Amino acid sequence: MTLLLILIALLCLGVPVAWALGLASFLYMAWNGIPFTSLVTQTSSSLTNSILIAVPLYILAGEIMNNGGVTRRIIAFCSAIVGRIRGSLAQVNILASIVFSGMSGSAYADAAGLGTVLIKAMREQGYKPEYAAAVTAASSTIGPIIPPSIAMIVYGSLTGTSIGGLFLGGVVPGLLMGGAMMALAAWLAYRHKHPRQEAMSWGERGRAILDAVPSLLMPLIVIGGILSGVFTPTEAAAVAVIYASILAVVYHGGFDGGQFLSAIKATIRRSAGVMLVISFAAIFGWLAIRERIPFQIAAMIMEISDDPLVFLLLVNLLLLVLGMFLETIAVLLLVVPILFPMLGTFGISPVHFGVVVCLNLMIGLVTPPLGICLYIVSNIARVPLMAVVVAVLPFMVPLIAVLLLVTVFPAVVTFLPALVGFR
Fold it and tell me: What is the pTM of this model?
């Protein structure tokens, strides 16, 4: 456990996660006389997995859609569907996140892209700005659960689990998250008498729906292509970028070279941070297995109970706490290599476990003190962070409820992948 103690000490000292992983590994290797060639070998080999190419590609696709008019058309489509009910803009916000999640794979992209448009619109219609921000942050957690998902791609690359199986496993939980939040928003709208949108004519609804059809085809192309074997998950990410670019430049227009350069720069910054954490986490995971940390933790858990449900509930507790303090990819790379070897002992499906892990970490995105999505929407809405934290608390109830449902009933995740032959 020496390796873990070093890491915890560095994190408590405020060392960034990526550097804490690398420095803990370096110090442990120096102390135990492990050749530093292993450091070079493990960090470099961790980045050779072709699946990881999908990460910057999906980030780029999300940036292009946010800057190229796709987001606005998705919002208009959702308004045409639910625009006349009380509190309709909150419902549009959640429904737009469900639709947009099938394109970007990133909660950050959803929070920033949809929030820029919808928070302003909700404020103008009389919603409290902190509530508008809270709805946006909470609904953005759907993004990495409904496929495609950057978090699931990273999990799959770490464990060798089928990306297609993970993608299909996230569909039902993601829809349950959206449905539960829409039900809560409807109740809050009734209780607080939230406003209705002006009625759209049938002609306006028809135009909004038709205008969004090309954008709505992207999830079908990406997921359909993967499941049919036309292209791999990595190739699907490249297809998403090409399709998003065609929509932004040709179909919608108004997407110029400056906006494309801005999207490239944002993608480079975010991708570089992810890859740095991945490389350092690889050597840390290798050392953790070498020190038999997973087996020691498994033995400790087995002393408590050999029930798979108890194991998963303990994992939920661990991940919810870690998600409060660490970024999603960092937690994945820190925890999955340690916990994944235990699944065989408890007879847990890797697909089920992957969706449970990702759902936990999405809740972490709206949980202080880190809660990155809270910071994003707080900045957009220009309201104090604590006001957003208070406003988002009711939305934790449906999120936790869905997490428990998915944990207790694995078939919620596994039945859809099983239908097409994934395990």
Answer: 0.81
